[in-house]
Design a protein that fits this description.
Number of strands: 3
Pfam family, one: Bet_v_1
Order of helices and strands: HHEEE
Largest sheet: 3 strands, antiparallel
Number of helices: 2
Organism: Brassica carinata (Ethiopian mustard)
Strand order of the largest sheet: 1-2-3
Protein name: Bet v I/Major latex protein domain-containing protein
InterPro entries: Bet_v_I/MLP (IPR000916), MLP-like (IPR052006), START-like_dom_sf (IPR023393)
Distance between the termini: 22 Å
Shape: flat
Family: Belongs to the MLP family.
C-alpha cells in the first residue's frame, strides 16, 4: 500500500488525529484508547484494536 501525502501529514495523523482512523478505515481499525498518559504527550500508551482477516487483535504502543 502506498501512502499519498507528505511525511509530516502522516506523522501528524498517527500522533494526534488517530481518533479519525476508525471512521476512515473502520473495517481494519475498530478503536484507539489511551491506557496511560494523555493523547498528545510523549510516552503515552495507546491501545489499538484492529482486525486482520477475521481475527481481532489489540496492540499497545
Amino acid at each position: 500500500m502506498c501512502l499519498k501525502g507528505t511525511a509530516e501529514k502522516h506523522y501528524k495523523r498517527w500522533r494526534s488525529e488517530h481518533n479519525l482512523f476508525p471512521d476512515a478505515i473502520g473495517h481494519h481499525i475498530q478503536g484507539v484508547t489511551v491506557h496511560d498518559g494523555d493523547w498528545d504527550s510523549h510516552g503515552t500508551i495507546k491501545i489499538w484494536n484492529y482486525t486482520r482477516g477475521s481475527d481481532l487483535y489489540s496492540l499497545s504502543l
